[in-house]
Each structure stands twice: as structure tokens, then as C-alpha cells.
Amino acid sequence: MAENDNNTQEQQAPQFAIQRVYLKDASFEAPNSPKVFTKQWQPEINLDMNTATTTLDNGVFEVVLTLTVTAKNDSDTAFLVEVQQAGIFTVTGLGEAELHHTLGAFCPSILFPYAREAIDNMVNKGSFPALMLSPVNFDALYAQQMQQQAQATEEAPQH
User: Which compartment or compartments is the protein found in (predicted)?
Assistant: First the structure.
């Protein structure tokens, strides 16, 4: 009987594994080249981020981190680069809230350095100066998103 208790405990123990990290989609545009190269380089950089999660199997999830970077120089778009960095993760033994946090914050934080490198490589190949995006605190972003959802729920009219 003690053996059954051990099996039950092992099944309930949280488990996390990275099965694969891959580049799902990437694009680079320099719509105003070569004109943009004749101006002094003082870019305004805008970064948009989004994550999406798909359940592939019981305890197996694909998380896709989408980063879109737009660089404007003297009001002209110098370049636009978008990367969808994805990963397949096995996550078991977590409660719903912990699973949601793992997929919404922890997994994107694993994917971000890969996406940052892909963006920097494409920007360099476009003959622009290196673009090393600053680290992102996905835990803080996740907490902010949860707070906004809670406020929206509270402000929703009750029937």
C-alpha cells in the first residue's frame, strides 16, 4: 500500500520540461531604404509583445511569443521586424492558477532571449545598428494583466 502512496505523490509532483524551442515566423521590412541610410540615425523604437498558448496534448502546450519592433527615424519607418518565437512545454502537476502563470510568464521569459537574438540578427542583416532589446519582466507584466482583468470583472455591470 505504501507503494501506491508513492506513485500518487510522484504523479502529483509538479513537472516542467522544455520539449522544443523554435522560430515559428519571422519577417523584416525596410520600406524606406536606401533613403533611410542617408539620414542621421536617431531612431524611435517601439516594441509590441503578445503571447498565445495552445494545448497540444494533456500537459503539453505550445507557447508563442510575438515581438514586433518598429523603428522610425525622422518620422520615416526605418524598419519593421516581427518574430514569433515558440516553444513546446510539458507542464503537469500544477493547479490552474500556477499553470496559467507558468504559461503566461515563465515560458515567455524562456523564449524572449531567442526572439531577441533573432530580431538583432535580422536588424544587422538589414544594415542597421545592433538592436539589443532590454530584458522584460514577464512576471510583472503577467501580474499587471491579471490586475486589469480583475478590475474589468469588478467594473462589469452585474445582472
Answer: Cytoplasm
DSSP string, 37-68: GGS----EEEEEEEEEEEEEETTEEEEEEEEE
Give the rounded distance of the alpha carbon of 159 from its chain centre: 36
For residue range 31-51, what is the model confidence (pLDDT) as tens digits?
A: 999 999 999 999 999 999 999
User: Cβ distance 28 to 126 under 8 Å?
Assistant: yes
pLDDT mean across residues, the chain: 91
Q: Which residues pair with 63 in a beta bridge?
A: 53, 87
In degrees and rounded to multiples of 5, residue 97 shows phi and psi of -65, -45
Query: What's CA 132's distance to the chain center, in Å?
Result: 16
Higher pLDDT among residues 4 and 159, named by residue = 159
Rounded Cα gap, residues 79 and 126, in angstroms: 8
Q: What is the pLDDT of residues 83-108, one digit of tens each?
A: 999 999 999 999 999 999 999 999 99
Show the CA angle centred on residue 99, arms to residues 97 and 143, nearest 5°.
55
Q: What is the DSSP string of 68-84?
A: EEEEEETTEEEEEEEEE
CA atoms within 13 A on the CB side of 104: 14
